[in-house]
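As noted in the main text, all predictions were made from sequence alone. Below is one such record, for dITP/XTP pyrophosphatase.
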Amino acid sequence: GILIVATKNKGKVREFQHAFAPLGLTVKSMYDYPDLPDVVEDGATFAENAFKKSRAVGDALGLPVLADDSGLCVEALDGSPGVYSARYAGEAADDEANNLKLMSELERLKQGEDTGQPLLSPARFVCALSLYDPADGREWTAEGTVEGWITSEPAGAGGFGYDPLFYLPEYEKTMAELTLEEKQSISHRGTALRRLTEKLAAAQSG
Ligand code: ITT
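Prediction:
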C-alpha cells in the first residue's frame, strides 16, 4: 500500500520511508503531488500546524494523509525558534542558513565572553504528527521529544536540519553522527511514530 505524507522536506521523507518500509508501505510526499497548493503554517503550536497540513492535503486528495510539524526549542532562547524553526533565518532559508543563525544568536548571548565550552544551551526537538482521514473527518495525533544540547562544534553528515548542532551527551555524538536506525530509535519523530502506531493498534483491537 501507499502512505501519503504531507511534506516537502526530503529529510523527513527519508525517515518516514525507513520507518514504513518494514510495514510494506511506500511513502508518497508532496513531490508526488506537485499541483497541490502550499499550506499556510500559521498555527501557534506544532500540533495545530500538523493538522493544518494533514487536513488540507487529505481533503484535497480525498485520502488519508499523515503530516509532521516539528522544530527545535532552545532553552537559552526561551524556546525559539520553535514553530518558526524552518524559517528562522528568513522565509527562503535553507538548513545551513538556519544553523548559522542559531549559532550566531547563541554566541551573541555569551556577549563576547568565551567560556571555551562547546555546549551552548540545552535544547529539545519536538515532533507533532497528525493523521487525518477525510472519509470520517477523524484525526489521530501523537507527539515526541528528545533532549540534547546545542554545540558550537557542528559534526556529522547524517540526518538533516539542525542535526549537526544537536549534541547527545549519552552518545557523545551529534544527531547527524547517528545512523538512520539510531536516530529513529531516540528521535522526536521516532517516538511520535511509535506512539501513533500504538494508538492505531489499540483502536483496531478495542
Ligand atoms: P514540511 O512542512 O513540508 O513538512 P518543513 O521543513 O517546512 O517541511 P516544518 O515546518 O515542520 O517542516 O519545520 C521543521 C524545522 O525543524 C525545519 O527547520 C527542520 O530542519 C527542523 N527539524 C525538524 N525535524 C528535525 C530533525 O529530525 N533534525 C533536525 N532538524 C529538524
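The helical segments are 10-20, 46-61, 95-109, 180-186, 188-205. The pocket of inosine 5'-triphosphate is lined by residues 7-9, 12, 41, 68-72, 85-86, 95, 98, 125, 159-163, 187, 189 (CB under 6 Å). These features were considered when defining construct boundaries for the mutagenesis experiments described in Section 2.9.
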